[in-house]
Amino acid sequence: MSDAAANQLPALTYRPVTERDGAALVDFLTAEDWPFHYHLRPPLALVREWIDGGHFLEPQSLHLWVLQGAQRIGLVGLLDLEDIDDGEPELGLRITAPARGRGVGTAAVRFLCGRAFDRWPQLERIFAKTRADHIAMRHVLVRCGFAKEMHARRAWHRDGGARFDSLGYGLLRADWERSVVTPVPWNDAP
Hints:
Helix content: 25-40%
Radius of gyration: 17 Å
Structural class: alpha+beta
Distance between the termini: 36 Å
Oligomer: single chain
Shape: globular
Strand content: 25-35%
Number of helices: 6
């Protein structure tokens, strides 16, 4: 993000998703298209199933609303919290179309990663995956210190059968704490 874009970043706040947010989650997730997610627009029944199953709440996940004033402009989360001790919880991010391209995603991911590493001292890494053609998310991850660790050909599928290359990125606690990115040894062996 350029310095000019950083200066235009709106004031953001974050609030955990709670049990009382069911209607807001339904509205947020079904009101617009999410072009780089499995479901372009998740069906209402599926969103309700996610809510009823505790998908957005601890102990399964930590999800935060990204707020500009009182307006919900994003949702950022860590999925699979049971992996904190011996694995890698996975990052999830959704930013509304009008808020995209303004640094909101980068700010939200940085905030969530800092909160997670502060809260769970045993957390060693956070994993994120995205489609290879989702250039904006790839930039967000790199800006936040994630290293590309995986390129899986035609591994990401979309509702309706389309397939895309999938990329995996990892953020190590040690890298986060030192503000560095440890290179991945891509050419160590066949």
